[in-house]
Amino acid sequence: MDQNIQKMRAAPAAPRRYDGQAGNPLYDPAQGGHYGASASIAAQGHAPDPQLFTGSWQNVNQGLTGNYRDILNTYWQQQVTKLETDEHDYKLHQLPLARIKKVMKADPEVKMISAEAPILFAKGCDIFITELTMRAWIHAEENKRRTLQRSDIASALSKSDMFDFLIDIVPREEAHPHKRATGQNAPVQSSGPVPPGGMPQQVHASHPMAPPDYGMGQHMQQQDDFRQSNMYANPDPVYAQQQMFDQSYQAYPTMAQQQMYAVNPRAQDPSAADAQAYRHEEADADAEGEREDFGP
After folding, report:
1. What number of other Cβ atoms are within 10 A of residue 203's Cβ?
2. 3-state DSSP assignment of residue 167
3. Is the pLDDT score of 53 beyond 90?
4. What is the tens place of the pLDDT at every residue in 190-204?
5. Which of 87, 112, 144 delimits the end of a domain?
6. What average pLDDT does range 266-278 have in this prediction?
7. How far apart are CA 134 and CA 60, in angstroms?
8. In this structure, is residue 292 part of a structural domain?
9. What is the CA radius of gyration of the chain?
10. Is 108's pLDDT higher than 60?
11. pLDDT greater at residue 252 or residue 161
């Protein structure tokens, strides 16, 4: 007798059905989706007992506490009850079965696929996507945001051991994005328009300066410095005295300074002079003959 009482006490309570009957709340996904329906039931105090999710179900609410744990427990309780009690139309699916079959056939060891296998995979993928979205949305709400980001999904994956197989797709480092530290002297690009062919200007942060002294002496000294300063610096005296061209590229008289080699003059050949005279006389004779032959 005592053993039966202990078994009854140790036995967990029967799961509640959220069908809106017998005082049970109604699970209505039309009111904010699965997250809104689960949050509404959990807020009313009708969330299932966390002790129900033990054994193979212990990872259902892993990494969650408080109200967020009750929301996810309510969703899983609704899905389990619906799969066990409701009648299903196996012609309607949330995901295309042809795509699931193609992925399954990618394994070379798979020879044949039964008709029920893609249906189970389609439902499993539907639950997986919904749960991961709810976990990511919980992380977004904790950070006061209304838009899901990649870091939210990465944080949701890091809180449960069920998602360890996705470590190669979404690394755990992305769950805690590092902010880029901007140094005090880091250049900042100007937001103004850049002209065609121009380079974007960079505005450098000003260096810290000591507070100025408002004494009259300092202002007078600064005024003198301002008057004495020029817009352009004076040229270096070394470069001012340097000539534009080298000495070797001056005018022609400098060529006389170059060393000339003496050349001995050759004596004139008397025969060469006679030959030139002969040729000159011959040319004159030819000219006279032409005038005689073709003259008037």
Report:
1. 11
2. coil
3. no
4. 444 555 555 555 544
5. 87
6. 52
7. 12
8. no
9. 51
10. yes
11. 161
Q: Which domain holds residue 81?
A: 1-87
DSSP code of residue 166: G
CA 165, distance to chain mean position in Å, is 25
Q: How many angstroms from the chain centroid is the CA of residue 244?
A: 53
Which residue type, as a one-letter code, is found at position 179?
K
Alpha carbons 294 and 239: distance in angstroms, whole number: 77
Handedness of CA 226, 230, 232, 235 (dihedral sign): negative
> Which tokens in the block code for residue 248?
């070797």
The model's confidence at residue 126, banded by pLDDT at 50, 70 and 90, is very high
**pTM of whole model > 0.70?**
no
Of 115, 150, 177, the residue that ends a domain is 177
Tell whether 48 and 96 lie within a shared domain.
no
Q: Are residues 78 and 99 in the same domain?
A: no
- Chain Cα centroid distance, residue 204: 24
Determine what percent of the chain is predicted with pLDDT higher than 70.
Answer: 52
Residue 143, exposed/middle/buried by CB under 10 A (0-12, 13-18, 19+)?
Answer: exposed
Does the residue 66 lie in any domain?
yes
d(CA 148, CA 138): 10
Residue with tokens 């696929």: 113
Pick the closest to residue 25 from 68, 66, 77 (CA basis): 77
CATH of the domain at 173: 1.10.20.10
Residues 50 and 102 in one domain: no
> Furthest-apart CA pair in the chain: how many Å?
173
> What DSSP element (H or E) covers 103?
helix 97-104
- Residue 283 belongs to a domain: no
Q: How far apart are CA 138 and CA 229, in angstroms?
A: 65
Total number of domains in the chain: 2
For the segment 212-270, what is each residue's pLDDT rounded down to a tens digit?
454 444 444 444 444 555 555 555 555 545 555 455 444 455 454 555 555 555 555 55
Does 208 reside within a domain? no
Neighbouring residues of 67: CB distance < 8 A, sequence distance ≥ 6: 39, 42, 43
Helix axes 33-43, 66-85, angle to 10 degrees: 110
